[in-house]
Model the fold of this input.
Amino acid sequence: MISIVLFLVLPALSKHVITRQEQQVSCSNLPTAIRNKTIYFHHIPKSGGSTICATAKANGENAPPKNCRWHSVASIGSAPPTTTTQCNFIATTNFTFVANEEYMPVELQQDLFFSFILLRNPIDRIVSHYLHASQCMFTVCAVETPSESAACFECMQGLGEWYMARTSLHNFVTRRLLGGIHDDTVLNRTHLHTAKERLRDLFDLVLILEEFEDSGRQLLAYYLDWRIFLRDGTHRNSNAKQELSEDTQILLMSVNKYDMEVYAYARSLSHVLMKQLPRKISLPPIIASDRLNKLKQRLAKVKKSV
Done:
């Protein structure tokens, strides 16, 4: 494989799969099976995963229930699936798209899947997580930011203490990429290096949420032939610079230094893929899903009652 060197070795551009070629499944328990590759999306919570699931379904993909999660299907189980489990899953389902919202498998059966991931600025992701976990999102911060609402400002003051008490959330993305690591494991730079390697080697596409409207959609349109893009999930775009004190931002960046490096590396991978696209595809605007429209109506009622 020809590689391009940045500060780690970047992947060569994968074969264009706009009409996904049928692949010979090499799993030993499926010796004669011929089928298309299933799309595997690694869903990092609070990073646009609901939008990807809604978009996949809008483009005709057959996906599991409950936000497209493969763990909602009994045959995959609750633990990171082994190679055998992945093969059995493909053999017994007809899904064309699956999302994994848990840890990465230790080994992803790459001849079965076309895989991609969508990453978000780690500190903004933490803010979004806290807003939901604390219920600030659905009450005092339903619409306004801390600078616009004293009640929202007060609710957000608890983020630092809440987060520091939950060490399993520290460097959350790095842990998820490693697969099968214990939540209480103290990470080091060897773990970081492994996480970067897995990001580079296991994913055909690496997308960035902050750049999704342009480059993310272009890459998905080119590789997967998706043309309809729905915005789903919550409507609120959390922004740490607007919602956290400078001291809290510095603390979170220090604690999540590995996630910050993974995010920077992911952006470099995504930029290389985007530069190598042979053409830009004309796409319609992103539209809100019915579920999102209903959520907006619910939050508007909350605002009136606060």
Q: What stands out?
A: Strands lie at 4-5, 9-10, 22-24, 34-36, 38-42, 97-100, 113-119, 205-208, 230-231, 287-288. The longest strand covers residues 113-119. The first helix runs from residue 49 to 58.
